[in-house]
Amino acid sequence: MSATATEARDAAPTPASAAPRPVRKRLVPYWLLLPGILWLLVFFVAPLVYQASTSVQTGSLEEGFRVTWHVQTYWDALTEYAPHFLRSVLYAATATVLCLLLGYPLAYLIAFRAGRWRNLLMVLVIAPFFTSFLIRTLAWKTILADGGPVVGALNSLHLLDVTSWLGITEGQRVLATPLAVVCGLTYNFLPFMILPLYTSLERVDGRLHEAARDLYARPVTVFRKVTFPLSMPGVVAGTLLTFIPAAGDYINAELLGATDQKMIGNVIQSQFLRVLDYPTAAALSFLLMAAILAMVTVYIRKAGTEDLV
User: Fold this and answer.
1) Where does the chain show beta strands of DSSP type E?
2) Confidence check: pLDDT of 306 > 60
3) How far apart are CA 3 and CA 136, in angstroms?
4) Number of H-type helices and E-type strands within the chain
5) Who contacts 110 (Cβ-Cβ below 8 Å, separation ≥6)?
6) C-alpha 138: how far from its chain's center?
7) What is the CA radius of gyration of the chain?
8) Which one of 198, 254, 275, 303 has the minimum C-beta count within 10 Å?
9) Cα 253 to Cα 265: distance, rounded to the nearest angstrom
10) Is 218 helix (H, G, I), strand (E, B) or coil?
11) To the nearest 10°, the Cα dihedral for 272, 39, 305, 110?
């Protein structure tokens, strides 16, 4: 009887769930990924490879450029334009901190206090994107003009004396100074900070705040122990979305800064379009990308979160 039962069990049909899936069905996820992979190959990997080959070329525009594996270009570019790299990191980091200080309270207000005005406030945050980046930056030349109300108010409060002593302005003017460049970067990239912060704060369960208050926690303690730790994914995402494009920006420094406020993006743009030194421009681009990638990697590990959205 035991042998008969075993044979009957072995002869029983295999459940449909245990049957192997057809090859076509197993390939469906890969077919869905194919358009994105092709897009990355054509518009990211191929230009990256071309730029890498350009960075190790020698020659001139008249004689032509050819690959000679001249890696010395990287060292020459780094030593010659090190101040521009440091200035770009400093301006981008300052603008990122200012965006966080300005954007967090606004994101908190929209997430927890806006009520029926939430949608309107979100539209106002996104509204600058409907205007050209260039026009928005040019508008700051009018806002920070020497005879404008901003400079007049700062003069009346004697704040320009302090900023001039700190070295972020010159005399009684704001334009063509580091302060003007940082203001332009902060304004243009502020929405990139607010949106991730709002998304992260909106996910915070309000019952956690109620529980903390029931345990007699002060508002500052509730924010420090509950709200801010839970919003860290938004903080990390916002700082990355702000710092990375700000470090490579060149429009704000070009329109709002002076010659000694040029960032590395201005140097790359000039090398590509004016000097026509393509190997140096490509080497600078790769150095900037490597520096940003290294800083972002260290920052993410120090922040202690992998959930960036």
Assistant:
1) 57-60, 64-67
2) no
3) 84
4) 17, 2
5) 118, 121, 122, 125, 194, 198
6) 22
7) 27
8) 275
9) 9
10) coil
11) 90
pLDDT digits over 113-131, tens only?
A: 888 899 999 999 999 889 8
297, containing H or E segment: helix 278-303
Lookup result for tokens 């301006």: 91
Give tens-digit pLDDT for 152-186. Answer: 898 888 898 898 998 898 888 899 999 999 999 99
Measured CA to CA, the distance from residue 275 to residue 282 in angstroms comes to: 13
Alpha-carbon separation of residue 135 from 90, 145, 253 (angstroms): 25, 16, 14
- Residue 88: is it exposed, middle or buried by C-beta count within 10 angstroms (0-12/13-18/19+)? buried
The span from the CA of 79 to the CA of 91, in Å, is: 20
What contacts 24+ positions apart, CB below 8 Å, involve 267-270? Answer: 267/81, 267/84
Residue 144's Cβ-side half-sphere holds a number of Cα atoms within 13 Å equal to 26
Identify which of 188, 166, 206 has the alpha carbon closest to the alpha carbon of residue 95: 188
